[in-house]
Every structure is written in C-alpha cells, then in structure tokens.
Specification:
heterodimer; A: 87 residues; alpha+beta; two-stranded antiparallel ribbon; 43% helix; B: alpha/beta; Rossmann fold; 8-stranded mixed β-sheet
C-alpha cells in the first residue's frame, strides 16, 4: 500500500494555492456585500410566494463559486396540496 | 521620527507575539529606542514571551484610564536598556480600549521612542483595529497554510481602509513575514511555497522564519528569540527582517534550502 502511495504521490500545495486564488478573488470583489446570498434568497422567495405557497423550511440555496462563473442554485419544494394562488 | 509598526495577522497562533518580541529586541539591539506594546487586552502574553511577567504593575488600560502614568507602566528590559514593554491588562476586556485613549498613549510614546511595535490580538475586532489604527508600517505574519493566508488577505484589506493613514489618503507600508516555513515540505509539494504566498497576497516580503524548535525554547526561557540564541536560524531571520524594517536592502534567503546531498535525504526522511 505504502509503496503505491510513494509512486503515485500527489502534492497538495498546488491544490491549496488554487483554492485560495479562487476564494480570494471572490472575497475581494464582494467586500461589504457578504450577505448577498441571504438577500437573493429572500427576494426570490418573495416572488415565488406571490404565486404558490412555499414552506420556508423546504428551501435550499446553494452557491458554487468557480474560477470564472458563479452558480446560484435555489431549490424550492412546492407541495402538491399547496395549489396555485388566485392571481 | 518615531515609526509605528503593527504586527498583525487576523488568525491566531501564527506567531504575532513571538515576532513582536523578536523584532522589537532586534531593533533595540541596533541601539534604537524601542517599545513593544501589547494590545491583546484580556489575553496578554507579550510580557511572558519577553520574560517580564513578574514585573507587571500597571498596564495599557491603567494608562488610558488615567490610573497610572505612562512612565510607571513601562517596563525596561533587563537585557537591553533600549527595549521597553507596555503590557496589556489581563483582567479587563477589549472594550476598555478607547480610540481617544490609544491615540493619547501613541502620541506620548512617539515623543520618546524610535520604534513603537504594536502586538495585535487575533481577530478583526476592536483590539485589532486599534492596534493598527496609528501604524505607519504593518508586518503581516502569515503561515504557509490556507486559513492563515485567507485571514492575512482580509487584514491587508483592513489596513487599506481602517487606519489613520488610509483615512488621510496615504498608504500603510505593508510587509509579509512568513513564519513556520519548512523548505523541505514546500519543495516536496506539501506546503505552499514562498512564491505562492507572495503571488496570492502581493505585498513585499520582509523575511522568512523557519519552523524551528528554537522558537519554543526561547519562549520557555522568556527571551525574545533574537536574544536567546542570536545565531539560531529563526534569530537570523528576525535580525535580517529588522534590518529591512530599518531601511536596509539585503537579499532574502530561504532558510533550510541550502542542504547538501545527505541533508536532503535525511531531511526528507525525518519530516
């Protein structure tokens, strides 16, 4: 086992360096708007709640900050019984 | 003209207090009148690292609140007569520091010293922001490790925003002090290299202090590492860094990198 590890040795420092570069690029850009995710979550929910009933505990917001693109994933469970509200 | 230096990092445990003591002593060894000021109110340790813990009578908070004069609170080092310590309070919390009080103390210190070295507490709250508030120069202490680098980046941002100099539209001179560096592990690819950290933080390097048993030994004895054994590798790194702080230009060497063939083999195995 250890001999395999010796030959397929992968260094961890380049990974550390890359993770830091991506993270800090985002953190430097977003000074003062650190609660952006929370703001987006509230506003998106408000829009959806206008039309359907939403259980606030069944909402998940995920953010993935990549090197070039950031994705925001909002997953809202709408129960079948909720019904669409009258416009 | 007095120079105010803040030794800061954001993250705890990276070597701020060790570096403050070592740099302060190194500057005092150059015959320049130096005071090291502990801003870590409630968790003071600079007195202990300097070996003056039994001589503390008054502290920074006493001076700020007018209970003691500055001259009464300052402790002269027993080994170097150009070196002084202004301890922090152990019984109060960091709210006992007021911006006006700190300003008064700093103005008074500037009249008497060549160097005022402020040892910042960890974090980014009151103690840390007040420690950096009056700085002309910042020494950002960083370990070659992801959380330390991230926190240093944050602190660099604060130095550019929350200091008196920044508010006047001037710049705080910022220097990177890389501590606990292990050249063998970096060469093997298991630790961020000097160049990696420099590229990410993009501030000039003032020194590289190697990971070394001499640092713990010195703090066990209550002596700044530059005084405990001035020929040890970390002492040399701090003495050189102090010379660079004072404006000298000297090439930066990476401690522990110039190993012979045998040294390489055994060094790798040992680590």
């Amino acid at each position: 086992m250890s001999i395999f590890r010796f030959f397929s040795k992968q260094s961890s420092a380049p990974t550390a360096r890359e993770r830091l570069q991506v993270l800090l690029a985002h953190e430097r850009a977003s000074v003062g708007q650190s609660d952006l995710v929370a703001v987006l979550r509230e506003e998106i929910l408000a829009v959806i709640a206008k039309h359907v009933q939403v259980d606030r505990d069944r909402v998940s917001v995920k953010m993935d900050r990549g090197e070039h693109v950031t994705t925001l994933e909002v997953d809202i469970e709408i129960p079948i019984t909720a019904g669409v509200r009258a416009a | 003209m007095a120079k105010v230096v803040v030794v800061t990092s954001g993250k705890g445990g990276v070597g701020k207090t060790t570096s403050t003591a070592a740099l302060g002593a190194a500057l005092a060894q150059r015959n320049e009148k130096t005071v090291v000021v502990d801003f870590d109110v409630g968790l003071r340790n600079l007195d202990l690292v300097m070996g003056a813990e039994r001589r503390v009578v008054y502290d920074l908070v006493n001076v700020i609140q007018g209970d003691a004069k500055l001259t009464q609170a300052m402790i002269r080092d027993k080994r170097l007569e150009t070196l002084f310590l202004l301890p922090a309070s152990q019984t109060r919390d960091k709210d006992a520091l007021t911006p006006e009080g700190v300003e008064r103390v700093m103005d008074e210190l500037k009249k008497h010293f060549d160097w005022i070295i402020c040892d910042s507490p960890a974090g980014i709250e009151r103690g840390a922001t007040l420690a950096m508030r009056h700085a002309d120069v910042a020494v950002v202490v960083t370990n070659p490790e992801v959380s330390s680098v991230r926190d240093s980046d944050r602190i660099i941002g604060l130095l550019d925003a929350k200091t008196e100099r920044a508010e006047r539209g001037e710049r705080v001179e910022k220097h990177l002090l890389l501590t606990r560096y292990d050249a063998v592990r970096a060469e093997r690819g298991d630790m961020l290299k000097v160049d990696d950290v420099l590229e990410i933080l993009s501030i000039p390097l003032i020194g590289i202090v190697p990971e070394s048993a001499d640092v713990l030994k010195a703090s066990n004895l209550g002596a700044p590492v530059t005084l405990a054994d001035s020929r040890s590798a970390p002492a040399i790194a701090y003495l050189d860094a102090a010379r660079r702080l004072a404006g000298e230009t000297l090439p930066i060497t990476i401690p522990g990198e110039k190993r012979g063939f045998l040294g390489k083999i055994f060094g790798r195995r040992a680590a």
